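mind reviewing this stuff:

——
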Amino acid sequence: MKIQEADAKTLLLAQGLPVPPWEVARTVADTRAAADRFFAAGNEMVVIKAQVLVGGRGKAGGVKLARSAAEAEAVAGAILGMSIKGITVRKVLVAPAADIVREFYLSAVLDRSARRILLMASAEGGVEIEQVAVDHPEAIVTLHADPALGLMDWQARALAFRLGLGAHLRQAVGIAKGVVRTMLANDADLVEINPLAIVRERAADGSTVERLAALDAKVTIDDSALARHPELEAMRDLDEEDPTDLEARAAGISFIKLDGTIGCMVNGAGLAMTTMDLVKRAGGEPANFLDIGGGARADKVAAATRLILADPNVRAILVNIFGGITRGDEVARGLIEARSVQERSVPMVVRIVGTNAEEAQRLLRAANFQTAVSLDEAARKAVAAAGSAGAAA
C-alpha cells in the first residue's frame, strides 16, 4: 500500500526524524490560509506540492514556490485538478520553502534475497535514484541492516562518512537509524527520503546554522501486515486506487492485472502461477493473476468473473479449480450466474477436479460451458478460444 507524502512524513516524525512543518489543503482557500500561517511565522516563501502517488510531480508542474499568500492561492488553483500521469490532483501539501545547501538520497528497502534491510544512499539527491544508478552507479552507497538488531551505530557512521556528512555526523546517524526504525515499526517495504537535505536556517540569536532535514518522504506498506496496523489502513488513498483493485479487496480476492488476453480464475496462489505458466507454454498470455482462495462460494466466483471481464483486453477465460475446501458445484453455480448477467460474451474454458467435481461437470454441461479434464488441455483450449475471438474482432 502506497501512502501520500504527508502521511509518510507523519511516520518519519513519529520515529524522531527531522521533518519540517507542513499542512495539507484540498481547496485554494485552505492553501491560502496555510500559507498565511507560515508567512506569519517568519517564513519568506512556501512550497506547494501536489499529493499524488506517482513520481515526476515537479516536471509535470505539480511543485511550485510562492512568495505571498495570494500567490500561493493562485498556484494551488493551477495545481488542484490538474492531471499528473493520469491521476487528478485533489490535495496539496503546503510547507515553508527550504534554503537548500546540498541534497542527498536515503532509503531502506526489503531485500528478500538477503533476508535483510537494504539501505541505499547517494550524495546525488533530489533526482530519481533509478537514473543515478544508470548514469553514476558508483555514486550509490549500500549496506545491509539486520532485521532483528536494526542499523548499528558503526554502520550508520560509515554511511555518513561515505556520503560526506562528517560535519553532520550525529544527526546523520540518527536519521539513518530512524529510517530503519520507521520500516520495522510499520512493516514497510520501502522508506525513502528524497531529498534528505542540508538546509540553511536562522537561529534564535540571528546567526545562520545548517542542519539535515527530510524534505520529501515516500513509504509503502506491506499489505499482508495491515491487520497489525489498522491505523495505517486509514491512510489508504482510495481516490488513487484502481476501482478493480478496490472491488477485489472488498470481495477478498487476490487480483493483479497483467497485459495478456486470457483471464485466469484459480483457487490457490501456487496453482494460479502454474496455470499462468501453462497458458504461456500453450502460446497465450495471461491477463491477470486471480486467486479466489479456499472455500469460495458462488457469489465470490461471480465477483471474480466480473473482475476479469472488466478488462477489455480479455478474449477468453480459463477457470482452473481444485476442489479441496472449495466445492466444485458451488464454483459451477457461480460461473453460471456470472455468465447470465455478464455484459459481453467471452468464451470460457473450465477445469474442475476434486470435491463435487462430477456435479460441477453436470451443471456446466447443462449450461453449455466448454470443459477440460487436464490443465494442459484447458490451457490449449483457452488459447485457441482467445485466438478465435481476436480474429472475429
The mean pLDDT is 90. The chain has three domains: 1-20+99-241, 21-97, 243-392. The longest helix spans residues 169-186.
